[in-house]
Structures are given as C-alpha cells and as structure tokens.
Amino acid sequence: MVKNKKDTVVFFDTTLRDGEQSPGASMTFQEKLLVAQQLASMSVDIIEAGFPISSEGDFESVKSIAQQVKGPVICGLSRANTKDITTCWNAIKYSKKPRIHTFIATSDLHIEKKLQKTRKQVFDMAVNAVKLAKSFCDDVEFSAEDASRSDVEYLCSIVEAVIEAGATTVNIPDTVGYSIPSEFGKLIATIKQRVKNIDKAVISVHCHNDLGLGVANSLAAIENGARQIECTINGIGERAGNAALEEIVMAIKTKPLFYPVNYNIKTKEIYKASRLVSNLTGVVVQPNKAIVGVNAFAHESGIHQDGMLKDKRTYEIMSPQDVGVPESMLVLGKHSGRHAFFKRLKDLGYKLEPNVMEDLFAKFKLLADKKKCVFDDDINSLVEQSVSGVQEVFTVDYVNVTSGVGVIPTATIRLVKTVKNKKEVIQEAACGSGPVDAAYKAIDKITGIKVDLEDYTLRAVSGGEDAQGEVNVKVKYDGATYIGKGMSTDIVEASINAYIHAVNKIVIMQFGGKK
Ligand code: KIV
Ligand code: ZN
User: Fold this and answer.
1) In angstroms, what is the span from residue 172 Cα to ligand 1's centroid?
2) Of 174, 172, 168, which Cα lies nearest the Cα of 141?
C-alpha cells in the first residue's frame, strides 16, 4: 500500500522515443507533432519527444515539438557525451519547460561487453554528463540503463553521485524486462533507503515488457516510492514494448485505496490517444488489450449481459466513458449539415482550424454519399488522414482494375505528380497475381520507387454492409519502414490509397519531395 497520501505520480510518455523504436513504428514529422499535441491534451507531465542526435529528422521534430507544444515538460534523450547533450539542448531549448535526459549503462555486462569500459570510467562519464546537462538546464534526468541487472551497491553509488551533480530525476530502467514485481519493488525500496540524498530527486522507473510484466513492475515501483513512471501509449516500444500508460493510470484510478496518489492524466483522452498512435504507427491494438482493445468493454455471454442490464458494476470495474470510448457510435448521414458535422468533431475532442474543418466537411459529404451511416470511427479516420500532414506528391486520378476467374488481373493507373506546383499526369498498366498486386505494380512503374510490401491488413472501419474498408500497408524502402493507410468503401481503392500514402512519405522523407 502506498503510504504518502499527498504524492503525485508524474507520467513521462516516451511514445515518440522508445515507442518509435518499435519495429516499423516510425512517424513523420507532422505525425509526431500530432501525437505530442494529443499527449498534451491528455495532460501528460513529460513528453520524451525524441533522441535529437540520432538523425536530422529527429532533431527537427524534437525542436518543433519544443516550439509548439505547450503544457508538458519537453524532454530529449542523449547518451552521456558532450555532442549528444549539446545537440539535445539545441533541440529542446525552445520549450518553456525543457529537460535533458542523459543515460549510460551500469550493469557489468553492458559496461564490459557493450561499452568496453570500467565501472570507474562509467561512473565519471555519468557524473560529467549530468554536470554538463545541468549547465544548460535545471531539469536533468539521469538513467542507469540496465539498472535491474546492475550491482546494487554500484547502482546506489552512481545514483547518489548524479544527484550530487544536479540530477533532479533518477530513472531505474528494467531495460530488458527481466524483473518480476516483488524483486523490482525491492530494488526501488533499497535505492530509497540507501541513497543518502535521494530526497533531492524523483525516483523514476522505465519497465520493458519482455516477460509481460512492465505494468506490474511499474505499479510495484510506485508502491515502493517511485513517483515518475515512464511509459507509452498502447505499450509500444523496443521488442515486447514498454509499460502501457493507459493500464497504469487506470490501475491507479480504479484502486484509489491501494494507490492513494494524485495524477494529472485526463483519462477521457486515452481512447483517442490510443487510436491516433495505432493509426499513425500501423501498430495494431490487439482486440483483448486492457483498457483500449475493442473487446475491453464488450460483454458477450448471456449471463454477463443480464448482469450488466441489472447493474453495470456486476461485470465492469471502470466505465468505457472514463477512458473516452465514445458512447454512441451512430451519428451522421448524408442529410447531416455543416453544423451537425462541426459539432460532432467538437464532441470527439478535435480543435481544428476553420479551413481544415471545411476541407473535412467536403470529404465527409463525399463519404456520406457512398455510405448510409457515418460513424465516429469513420470521422476519426477522416481527421487522422487529413491532418497527418503527408504532402501529396502523387495523387490518384484514374483507376481501372479487371480481375475474375480465368482473367489475368490487370490494372491501369493514372497518377498526378505535383512538384513545386508543377503537375504531370503519368499513366501505366501492369498485370499481377490479383487486382491489388497489379495496381501496386503499375504504381511502382509510375513512381520509379520499388518498395517491398512487408505487411497488408484490411479491416472494416465500422459495422454494416456499407462499412468502409481501411487498409494499412507496411513497406520497406532503403532499409526504412513506412506505414500507409487508406480508406474507401471500395477495398481496391482503399488499397491503392494506402500504398500511395506510404509512397508519398518515402518521397518526402527520402527525396525531400522532389522524386
Ligand atoms: O530501456 C532503457 O533502458 C531506455 C533508457 C534509454 C531509458 O530506454
Ligand atoms: Zn527503453
């Protein structure tokens, strides 16, 4: 049981840094900004916006998040060296609340094998890194990578030294997800007991999920005095991912007697954040995922449904509304006007510029002509596609696809290519193993960009016979993975839109929009 009643547990979201390290989860500059804005709407305390030294693109996106996202502390990651820390500062210094996060590994395995250094060298590097970071910025976090496999004496001595050097947060990561809750809780209790100056810093934890225990370990850490939790939306991250923000905050909210601590997260924003991250990264949320899976609040068995009708508490420990799952799904149709559409956008939590709303209304009308009922999920997808900010170098102008039994699938595609306001119309045809394959081959001929299709998924966005098909593709080009998403009531068209979406990202990110 947590003892100190007045404490606040702060949430440090690393979706844009550790989360983005999930295989294939890379996001464009504008997509990261969108996620950061949603994290701010959710009142996340600290956003780890990226690892500025890792690439020019990461530097620029951390910088623009620092410039544009108000509310949370904006943090950048750096290794324990001068170049990383200086670059990190140059990216985050635009924020009103900047934080430098510097780290070095402290387990003997990492020190000897990975860093090829001695304990003494690592100790000095940690202290010097924190001193340098402190010369730029008051708010400095130090992480002892692989802390849970480090010698406890040594770990405590480094923690004490970095606090002495100015660290205001000391993070104890379970980097490889090796701990179990009782063991990890004990480690936090030991640090709290043994480190003399621990009251001068916040103890943080960062738990990976290799044994499926990331959330359980984070909660055990809170019980033992940790007051910062590092986590990600939907639990995305390296390998099996990180502890999921939504699961930790809802555990605290649902068990107030067990965790009598404050937190700042607006839980009603959780569902939107989950959908946004899933849509932008292409990392699908499993149906039975706690809190945000589609089945998290579904009651299938007759006995359960009967119980729910009599009293929801029989089978529901929290309400879907608490995490922002929309109450009514059926909303608009082709007779709905501008006013109703704008109100629904507002009810769904979007704060958009008038020109963006007008553009969305035009798209909504086109959709409503094809589809009897436009559901909240349709609207969410429209918004996410329109504001993802991927510049449309290639747009679809004409599609003709033939396929059938005894017919060779063939596609004729015409795309418009726009570079610096100059338009060029290009047409190609190709055969394939199916209509989508034929279309993709024709597109490859037009763009001259040969990608490897790594993954293709199709799902119905909302129920009913006229449901829209949503296609997500994962393509690989020049070693990097790109996600594309397309929607339409016609699944071939949705497939083409998804592919073009991914190709446009490649054109922007690899060729600066000039291919
Ligand atoms: O898993 C880890 O140890 C990390 C650190 C950089 C905090 O991601
Ligand atoms: Zn990590």
Assistant:
1) 9
2) 168
